[in-house]
Write a structure and sequence with these properties.
Strand content: 5-15%
Shape: elongated
Helix content: 25-40%
Largest sheet: 11 strands, antiparallel
Number of helices: 17
Length: about 475
Amino acid sequence: MGNTESVVVQKRLARFRPEDRPSVEGIFDRLHAAADGHSGSQSKTPAGKPLTLQHLQFSMGNLASDSLVRRIYRCMCSIDPGPAAPAACGKSSASAASGVAREQLVIFLADTLRGTAEERAPLILAMSQTGTETANVVKCEQVAEFLQDLISAVIQTLVRKGHVEGWKPERMGDGSQGEKLLAEQMCSELIPSDEGDCDVSCLEDWIFRVAQVSLYLEMLVTEVLNISLSSRPAPILLPPCKEIPWKELTCLLDLPTLMFLAPQLPGSYSAPWRLLFSTRLHGESFTKMVAGLMKRGPTLLLIKDTKGHVFGGFASHAWEVKPQFHGDSRCFLFTVFPRLRVYTATGYNKHFMYLNQNQQTMPNGLGMGGQHGYFGLWLDSDFGCGHSRARPKCTTYGSPQLSGDENFTMDSMEVWAVGKPPEPEEGDESDGKRSVLDVDPEVQAIMEMTGKTLHSQGLREPEENQDQ
C-alpha cells in the first residue's frame, strides 16, 4: 500500500494501539460478509467493491433507525480519502450511489473514535443533512433532528444490550419525550450565526464544549459495529441503581434525563442510586420524607407539579433539620420538563439548602436557594404545596421560576440518594450513649435559636479517633 490514499489511512490507523488495528481494518470485510450471508468468514473483500447502504442497514438496522443509518452512510460517502483533511462537502451526491470505499470507512472510524473536534465537526455537519446534496451550513433544527436520531439509537442500544445498570425503562417516564428534550438541551449550547446557520467552525466549537456529542457518537459506533478496543473501555452513560421496588413504582425519571443529570453530579457514577422516598409509595407525608432524607448523604429531589412541570434540586450534603442554611456550591437546581436545564451556584450567597420542621419562629419546610419567603425551590411542611419565587432569577442559583405557577401544587415527588452513604457515627447503634438532642434535632435547633447553652455537648466523652 504505497499510494497517497493509503498514507492518509495509515496515519488514521496509527491512532489505535497495534493490537486494535486489525479489528478496525477488518470491519469493512466483516460488514460485507455479514450482509452477504458469510458471517464469520475471514476472506478479504475484493478490491474496488464498496459498502452499500444495504450493507449498513443489515448490520445497524436492529439498533439504529433507518434515518440514522442513512445519515451515517451519506457521511461516509462524503469523506475525501485524499491527502487533504476530510471535508463534509468533499464529494457530490453521486458518491452515495457508488458506495463507501474501505479508506472512507477507516477514516470515519478513526475520526469518530479517536478524532479531534476539528475532525468530527465535518462528520456532524454531513450527518445533520438529509438531502442528497451536501451544504456548507446547517440550521440548528437540523442538528437537533440528527441528535434526536442519535440519542434514540443510543437508548435503544443500551436497552437491547443490557447496559441499563438496573433501571427499568418500562417503569419509567416517556423516553421519546426525554430524547427530544435532551437533543434540544444539547443544541441550546450551539452558537450559530446571526442568520441561524451552523458551519464547521460553529460545530467544532460546540463539540469541544459539549462532550456528550462525541461520547454518544463513539458509544453508538462501537456498540452497533461491535468494535472492542483494548485502549478504551466502553463509556458508561447511566449511573447504577439498586434496591428499587420496580413492581410498585412508576418513576418520574427516564433514561435520557438520567443521561443528562448524572454527569452533573460530583463523582456521578461512583455509587448506585437508591430511592429514599416516593409519594406514590410512601404517601404525601413531610415527616416521612424528612425521615428518608436524614443521614443519607447527597440526594436528588424530583418534583412534578399539577401543571406538568418537572423540576428539582441536587443537595451535595446530608440534610439537617435546623433553622440555618447549609450545603455548598456543588448544589444545584434543575428542570426536566418542559426543558432540561441545570442552574448552578452564582456565588451571590450561600443559601444552598434549608430544612426545618415544627417551629413557630422560622419557616417550616424544605428550601433551596433564594431567601425565606422567596426560595428558588420551596416545599412547605404542610406538604402538597410549595413555591418557586425567582423573578427575575434566584439569587443563589441564577434559576428562573421552575414550576408552572409561582405557587405550585405538587402532583408527585421522589427523593434519590445519589452518593456514597455517610459513615455511621460512633455511638449511633447504642441509644444509651445518645443525648436527647441527638434524638430530636428540632429541640437542639430551638435551643440554639433562643440562645440556650447546650450543656450536654461539653460533658460528652471525646471521640477515640478525634484529632488531638
